[in-house]
Specification:
Oligomer: heterodimer
Radius of gyration of chain B: 27 Å
Structural class of chain A: mainly alpha
Distance between the termini of chain B: 20 Å
Order of helices and strands of chain B: HHHHHH
Helix content of chain A: over 70%
Strand content of chain B: under 5%
Number of strands of chain A: 0
Radius of gyration of chain A: 26 Å
Low-confidence stretches of chain A: none
Distance between the termini of chain A: 15 Å
Shape of chain A: extended
Mean pLDDT of chain B: 89
Number of helices of chain A: 6
Number of domains of chain A: 3
Structural class of chain B: mainly alpha
Chain lengths: 205, 218
């Protein structure tokens, strides 16, 4: 039975993918509409998948509390805030508290984590200088320092009109384009491997 | 005592900023409490938003209030959604396989279309467009194109069957080194951008702490 399902899964993934691809690249009547319908369904299913994921998070932490594993106090805090946030976000009467949670917890925590990144990045830079001192590392460091300091020196016309555009539009653009094309080629290859059935991330191989 | 929402928001904001920034002195229980509370709050918020804006608005409302055709085409996603819910059970999770396969298939096709139409073709077009403004653009366009080609050469890791050692040839190694230099420059600029954004966030948080304390002390 599971083997039949495995083949069925591959057929569904390949068939739906091909319909979407044909609907994207060819102006065929019916295919475009089917592609849009598939996208509409995919959005709904992705939403349900998010809910399943959150349920999984809930059940894992509930299990940690039940079995009194180390750190179960943190799990209790997580579940408490999850249920409170779910209540405030779902019930219209509590919408004021939803704003309090959004502006008092989510936004400050996110910005503070971004602020921590500044220190982490500087620490990583110092560690890199200790462990690697080859040519690309030195070029990376020089470019990073130049990109950080050039806005400070923007009052000088030579910096503003010549050096800054040369750094961002010329020196960095080639590498950026190479990285972008590389990522796109990688995405293309991975997508084609899935549609040809060589990779089956949904199980079966 | 009745606490206003503004005061509660300010207090929570102050507390969470201090707890998260306390990581600067090392991992500590305060930081862990803040992170777990943050994850719980964000998960609850996302669950409620997704349920209301996706499941209710895009599935239940067309099913209940739509015309006959809308109801018919929404039966399959409803069935798929129910099958996807079996993923929560270890015994029945295989039933959700076809739904995951559908999502993977549509996602892979969308990724291919996005990569070709959103990145490859526009980047090729932009590379060609750099040569269109006289001799100066020929030089700058040629330089950028060279940078692109050697950057891609750096990511070439496959070798021919004849190459027993598995190492790059001299020319390929030289081009890869040049590519590495171009990539290092790009990553340097990106690093500076991210660091500048993170520093801005750091200044913003410190400023918010000072302003909150200042408003209390007055």
């Amino acid at each position: 039975m599971k083997r039949i399902f495995s083949i069925l899964n591959a057929v569904i993934a390949m068939g739906c993918g091909l319909i979407v691809l044909i609907g994207t690249f060819f102006n065929l009547q019916g295919m475009r509409e089917t592609r849009l319908l598939f996208f509409q369904w995919a959005v709904i299913l992705a939403g349900v998948a998010v809910l399943v994921g959150i349920w999984n998070l809930f059940s894992v932490h509930l299990q940690k509390i039940r079995t009194r594993q180390p750190g179960s106090l943190y799990s209790l805090i997580l579940l408490f805030f999850m249920l409170l946030s779910l209540l405030f976000s779902s019930v219209t009467e509590f919408s004021a508290f939803k704003t309090v949670f959004l502006n008092g917890i989510i936004l400050p925590a996110e910005i503070s984590l971004l602020a921590l990144l500044a220190v982490t990045l500087l620490y990583a830079l110092i560690r890199m200088l200790r462990t690697r001192t080859d040519l690309p590392t030195l070029i990376f460091l020089t470019t990073a320092l130049a990109a950080l300091l050039l806005p400070v020196l923007a009052q000088f016309p030579a910096v503003n009109d010549l050096i800054r555009p040369a750094l961002t539009n010329l020196l960095a653009a080639g590498g950026a384009r190479g990285i972008l094309i590389g990522v796109a080629l990688g995405t293309l290859t991975t997508g084609l491997r899935i549609l040809l059935g060589a990779d089956r991330p949904y199980g079966g191989k | 005592m009745i606490v206003s929402n503004e005061l509660l928001t300010g207090l929570l904001s102050f507390l969470f900023t201090v707890l998260v920034l306390s990581y600067l002195v090392g991992d500590n229980p305060g930081f862990r409490v803040a992170i777990h509370a943050f994850i719980g709050t964000a998960a609850g918020y996302v669950a409620a938003t997704v349920f209301r804006q996706v499941v209710v608005d895009k599935l239940f409302i067309p099913l209940l209030n739509g015309d006959t055709w809308q109801r018919v085409i929404m039966i399959l996603p409803l069935l798929f959604s129910l099958l996807l819910l079996t993923k929560m059970s270890a015994r029945l999770e295989w039933l959700g396989g076809p739904v995951v396969a559908f999502l993977v298939g549509v996602g892979a096709a969308a990724a291919i279309a996005g990569a070709v139409m959103g990145t490859l073709l526009p980047q090729i077009e932009a590379s060609a467009g750099m040569f269109s403004d006289g001799f100066g653009s020929l030089l700058s366009g040629g330089f950028v194109l060279f940078g692109t080609v050697v950057s891609l050469a750096y990511f070439q890791f496959s070798v021919s069957k004849k190459n027993v050692s598995g190492k790059r040839g001299k020319l390929a190694a030289f081009l890869a080194l040049l590519g590495q230099i171009f990539i290092a420059m790009t990553l340097g600029v990106l690093f500076a951008g991210v660091l500048a954004a993170a520093l801005t966030a750091f200044v913003d948080r410190i400023q918010s702490l000072v302003l909150f304390l200042d408003s209390f002390l007055r």
